[in-house]
Write a structure and sequence with these properties.
Blueprint lengths: L2 H8 L5 E2 L10 H13 L3 E5 L2 E4 L10 H8 L4 E2 L1 H7 L10 E5 L4 E2 L4 E5 L8 E7 L2 E6 L1 H11 L6 H6 L10 H11 L2 H24 L1
Length: about 210
Amino acid sequence: MKFAELLSLVGDQPVFETGLLLAGNVDPNDVRRQLSRWVHTGKIRQLRRGLYMSAPPYQNVVPHPFLIANALMPGSYVSEQSALAYYGLIPEYTPRTLSVTMSRPAQWEDGFVFRHLAPHLFFGYQSIEVAQRQHVFVAHPEKALLDLAHLTPNSDSLKYLSQLRLQNLERLNLDRLYGFAERAGKPKWKRVAHQVIVLARQEESEYEELR
């Protein structure tokens, strides 16, 4: 296979798997050798075993970090500070992409972090188009807050939540927030939901005073 053939097959896909190249009458060993050579020469980049993306200047579409995260660990969704920053609920930029998974925790050198969540807590996410034709699984903002609290010790205090510098809390669905906490059946989640509701009401009151 020549590199031009690879680009033709990959087209506008932000990331691609080895299996895409093995259809038809091809030698799998030859394909893998070629992929290894192109990684070595910097034409493509290996994200994990069997998963690649084209490298500039051969890259037609730049993959969103959330898309890469979903592809690195199928069955995961982006959550915690990464989702909160995406929704504009915290002011800080998050250099790492934080996700949760029912599989074992994992971390990539490029800043992709996956933390374990028990199966009965694995809910509250949605498919979002984060870039043109790039759909990814991201926690609802309310679930991102609860995931963060669940995975962070001593996070159910008003002091901790204030340190997050939460903002734009009117974007939260407080009924959904408490519903998620009820579904989990964890007292800590209910305490966090209550504290966030207090902060949301404070923010709303302060906004009304400024009007």
